[in-house]
Design brief:
Four copies of one chain form a homotetramer. Chain A is globular, with a radius of gyration of 16 Å. Chain A has three helices and eight strands. In chain A, the strands form two sheets. Chain A has a six-stranded antiparallel sheet. In chain A, strands 2-3 form a two-stranded antiparallel sheet. Chain A has 154 residues and is an alpha+beta fold. Chains A and B meet through helix 1 and strand 5 of A and helix 1 and strand 5 of B.
Chain lengths: 154, 154, 154, 154
């Protein structure tokens, strides 16, 4: 879902062109403390990128991996876990593009509660690679153009 | 396993007092590209912390969570994925303590290949919390003392 | 989603009162062979039961576990994996109740492809337990009544 | 680990030639009820099969999948969950071969507590497939011979 309305959420991020998706906190995500186990948040991040590619960039992971022989490798990750999330909560996931390089894209991802407060906020750097060699390859121009639609000044 | 020999691995980290553990790259860790799916590395990080607590600090997660009513929450994460890891590889995981605060500890974790080259390197900040309230609580003195054994100058 | 139309899918199951939910085969579900790793199907089963409880039975797992102190333990599982599922596929998950006991319920679950052919078909027996003691407790009458709406003759 | 001593564990299974492996119940395995989430047991089953192939049959999953282009697909699963397992427990996993077909092998797997009582007991039917086509292929004779070492009368 692309959000084209101008809005400010939190203090630091203008999400004019954010990709948004709801995330339900499931039993499978939660640990013995009753809150989301942090590696499951990383699966939520990956699922959000997967949905963004398919719905926002019009190239599914299946097409990318199986037809074109490309992959999107996560090469860097920075995450702040601001507050715990509990079983049954509905979070809102938001993705914006921070910068686009020759082969890479830097994303900012936030998971927020129903009041718009951060639960988790992170940055991911993804690099487009050849699936076989795992070597970086340039982002194709059409994909770069579609990514730029989700770009936002910080 | 505590390693008390003085050694330099890679270029930037002196691991005089590192906690070490082997990690087998399993089928369950790998994605359709045949390499470790990055959230599974985060499970490896958590498993390493779990083993460090049990074997290095003499307090198991079970004792911490179930008997004492504490938890160790991950509040910050920074990870660089230097090179992919493949099915069947045996990695070496290393944990050192970078700094110890009132309630928190900053860890540096590396996963390396058989030649000692980084596959994944990251920092985690953990905060000791009360399991019920999820609020930070001071690290007990004995635990702090045992953590300091694994502390290393960067 | 409750399906009240009379229909026959496959050869053996009349799903007059089935609970249905779509399932996207995600990157996180797939193994190095490019197909769904079978433990991930078991997470899909659990997610389906979770959605059925919340939407079909009007009692969320959060309410069940956190407010009422109950749990639904899986005590038996039988699954046939008829054909592999691939990255990006949209499956249809179906749940019907086979029988209801004092504390237990037997479910039949199927995951099917877009043409209605089985990918995975299984039976799960769940037992309602006290969360603390893990001992079986009778299904409350209102829950039993709502479960019976999804009951189907085999 | 192959156990060649004659022994009876539980009431129904003679495990003369069982493959055994210890399993630690980790934080990552446990759910908000503080016990192992059942799909994680299925990962333990898969890990056990993986270890059996590598250590017991002298063919690693990496060799099987990447070098020979084969896979071992789970086509049937039956599991009884006799009692819950808790964070920090050390279980003992046991695998015996029940029968060997042209392309398939039926395994019996048990996870037991420190007193030898069943926590989980299941049967898995695996079929050797061509990785590309996902079609069944005959088990090679040497692999069949090595499998038969772990065969046990029920």
């Amino acid at each position: 879902m692309r959000d084209t309305t101008s809005s400010v959420r939190g203090e630091t991020i203008v999400e004019t062109h954010a990709f948004r998706s709801p995330v339900l906190v499931r039993f499978a995500h939660c640990d013995p403390a009753g809150i989301v186990f942090f590696p499951r948040y990383m699966e939520m991040f990956n699922n959000l990128v997967e949905d963004w590619c398919r719905e926002g960039l019009q190239i599914s992971f299946a097409e990318m991996h199986l037809e074109r022989g490309w992959g999107m490798s996560t090469v860097h990750l920075e995450v702040d876990f601001a507050a715990p999330s509990f079983l049954g909560e509905e979070l809102s996931a938001t993705l914006v593009v921070r910068s686009i390089g020759t082969s890479s894209v830097r994303l900012e991802i936030a998971l927020r509660d129903a009041e718009g407060r951060d639960r988790v906020r992170g940055q991911m750097v993804l690099v487009m690679v050849e699936a076989q060699s795992k070597r970086a390859r340039p982002l194709p121009d059409d994909l770069r153009a579609r990514m730029s639609v989700f770009q936002s000044e910080s």
